[in-house]
Design a protein that fits this description.
Blueprint: H1 2-15, H2 20-34, H3 40-54, H4 61-72, H5 77-89, H6 96-111, H7 114-131, H8 136-147, H9 157-166, H10 170-176, H11 178-199, H12 209-234, H13 240-258, H14 264-297, H15 300-311, H16 315-330, H17 335-352, H18 357-371, H19 379-388, H20 392-399, H21 403-415, H22 418-427
Helix pairs in contact: 1-2, 2-14, 3-14, 4-13, 4-14, 5-6, 5-12, 6-7, 6-8, 6-11, 6-12, 7-8, 7-19, 8-19, 8-20, 9-17, 9-18, 10-22, 11-21, 12-13, 14-17, 15-17, 16-18, 17-18, 18-21
C-alpha cells in the first residue's frame, strides 16, 4: 500500500507539471517521513545521498560530450560529414536517405545525442533531400528515425547515466552499443531502400574514385573523431570519461584552429550552454539518488521482483513485459530521468532472471530511444518538425513506417544478448 502511494505521488507531481528533480525530492521526503519521520538526521541523510550522487568521476563525461556535440553543429563539420556519406552510399536505391542514416552513425560518435543529431544534421539533410525530389514527410521521418542511433553508438550519454546508476563499467557499456547501433542503422537502410524503390525516389550516380577521395579528404579530420574515441577506449589509452574530454578538445581544435569557423565568442556560448544543461542533468542525478535510496528502504525493488515472478518465472516473458513497460515509459518521460528513476527499481529483477546488466542497459536505452519518436514527449519529433516546417500530425504519421525496423532491432537486441556483449567480452 505504501509503495503504491509513494509511486502514485510521483506520477501525480509529474502530471501537475512539477520539475523532475523537485518531484523526486518531495516524493523521497514523503517516503522517509512515512517510514520514521523527517528530522535533522533524515535531512542530513538526504543531503549526503544527493551529494554522493553527483560526486562521481564518470559523470564528468557529460559536460564534455555536450561541448563536443554542440561544437559539431558550429561551422561546416556536419556538412562535410553529410557530403562524404552521400558520396559513399548515395548511389544505393534511396540515395540521400542512406546518407542520412550513415551521417547519424558518424555524428553519433561525436555527440551521443539524438536531439543534437536531429537539429544539427536535420537542417542539412532535409533540405538536400527535398531539393533532389524526396517528399518532405519522408525526409523528416528518415531524419527523426536515424537520429535515435545517436544514443546507442558511443559516446552515449544515456548509457553513462545508466552505468552510474547501476554501478556498471562505462567502457563496457559504450562498447556494447556499437553492434546494436550498427544493426539499427542497417535495418533502417533496408526500409529506406524498399520504400524508395516503390516510390521511385532518385539516387546519385556511382561516384568516381577521384570524387570520393576529394569528399573523404574534406571530411577526414571530422571522421577521425569516432575512430579516436572508440579506438582509444578499446586500446586502453583512456577511459570513457577521459574520452569525453578528448572529444571536446578535438572538437575545439577542429572548429577554432583548423577550420577557423568558430570564434572565441562562439566557444564561450557553447561552454555556457553545456554548463547550463549539465547543471540541469546533475540536479536530476542528485535527486534521483536520494529517491533510489528511499525506494530501496521501502523495499519497492523486492515488490517489483515478486510481481514479475508472480506473472511468470520465464526469462522470455519477463523480457516481453519489461520491453512493453519501457516503451510505455518512453512515451511520457525524458530518457535520462527515466533511466535514473527506474534502474534501481527494475535492475534487481533483471539480474534475478540471469540478465547481464550491460545487456539490460542497452535494452532499456534502446526502448527509451524509440520513445523519442513517440508522442507526447517525442523530443526528436519536435526537433525535426521544426526543421522540416511540417505539422506535428504529419510528423507522427510519416515516422510510423520506421517503427517496423526499430522494433525488429529491439527484438534482436533483446533475445540475442551476444549482439550487445560480444565487443565488451573481446575488450576484456
Amino acid at each position: 500500500m505504501l509503495a503504491a502511494i509513494f509511486i502514485g505521488l510521483l506520477l501525480i507531481l509529474f502530471m501537475l507539471g512539477m520539475s523532475i528533480p523537485y518531484a523526486l525530492a518531495i516524493t523521497g521526503i514523503v517516503g522517509m517521513y512515512a517510514t520514521g519521520g523527517f528530522g535533522v538526521m533524515q535531512m542530513q541523510t538526504m543531503v549526503q545521498k544527493m551529494v554522493n550522487g553527483v560526486n562521481g568521476f564518470s559523470l564528468m563525461a557529460i559536460p564534455f560530450f555536450l561541448i563536443a556535440g554542440k561544437l559539431m553543429n558550429v561551422g561546416s563539420i556536419t556538412k562535410r560529414i553529410f557530403d562524404f556519406c552521400n558520396g559513399l552510399v548515395g548511389w544505393i536505391p534511396g540515395g540521400l536517405g542512406h546518407a542520412n542514416v550513415l551521417s547519424s552513425v558518424v555524428f553519433a560518435g561525436m555527440s551521443g545525442s539524438a536531439v543534437a543529431d536531429a537539429a544539427g544534421l536535420g537542417t542539412i539533410e532535409i533540405k538536400a533531400m527535398e531539393e533532389q525530389g524526396f517528399d518532405t514527410d519522408f525526409s523528416a521521418a528518415v531524419t527523426a528515425a536515424s537520429s535515435t542511433i545517436g544514443p546507442i553508438i558511443p559516446p552515449i550519454i544515456p548509457l553513462i547515466m545508466y552505468g552510474v546508476s547501476a554501478s556498471v563499467s562505462i567502457s563496457s557499456l559504450l562498447m556494447g552499443g556499437v553492434l546494436p547501433g550498427s544493426l539499427c542503422a542497417l535495418s533502417l537502410s533496408v526500409m529506406i531502400a524498399v520504400i524508395s524503390i516503390k516510390r521511385k525516389y532518385p539516387r546519385r550516380e556511382f561516384p568516381s574514385l577521384l570524387e570520393l577521395w576529394k569528399l573523404f579528404s574534406r571530411a577526414f579530420l571530422s571522421l577521425l573523431t569516432p575512430v579516436i574515441l572508440i579506438g582509444g577506449i578499446l586500446c586502453g589509452v583512456f577511459t570513457a570519461t577521459e574520452a569525453a574530454s578528448v572529444a571536446s578538445l578535438y572538437a575545439i581544435i577542429l572548429t577554432v584552429v583548423v577550420y577557423r569557423e568558430a570564434k572565441m565568442k562562439d566557444l564561450y556560448m557553447v561552454i555556457k550552454e553545456a554548463a547550463q544543461e549539465s547543471a540541469g542533468i546533475m540536479l536530476v542525478v542528485a535527486s534521483s539518488y536520494f529517491y533510489g535510496f528511499v525506494i530501496t528502504k521501502l523495499q519497492i525493488p523486492a515488490m517489483i521482483l515478486n510481481f514479475f515472478l508472480s506473472v511468470s518465472s520465464s526469462k522470455a516473458v519477463f523480457l516481453i513485459l519489461i520491453n512493453l513497460f519501457f516503451l510505455f515509459v518512453g512515451c511520457f518521460m525524458e530518457c535520462n530521468s527515466a533511466i535514473l528513476i527506474l534502474t534501481p527499481i527494475v535492475l534487481p529483477a533483471a539480474v534475478s532472471f540471469g540478465i547481464d546488466p550491460i545487456h539490460f542497459g542497452l535494452i532499456m536505452v534502446f526502448n527509451l530511444m524509440i520513445g523519442l519518436l513517440t508522442p507526447p514527449v517525442g523530443m526528436c519529433l519536435y526537433a525535426t518538425m521544426k526543421v522540416a516546417k511540417i505539422s506535428f500530425d504529419r510528423m507522427v504519421k510519416s515516422v510510423l513506417m520506421f517503427f517496423v525496423p526499430l522494433m525488429i532491432t529491439l527484438i534482436l537486441i533483446t533475445y540475442i544478448p551476444q549482439i550487445t556483449l560480444m565487443l565488451p567480452e573481446l575488450a576484456g
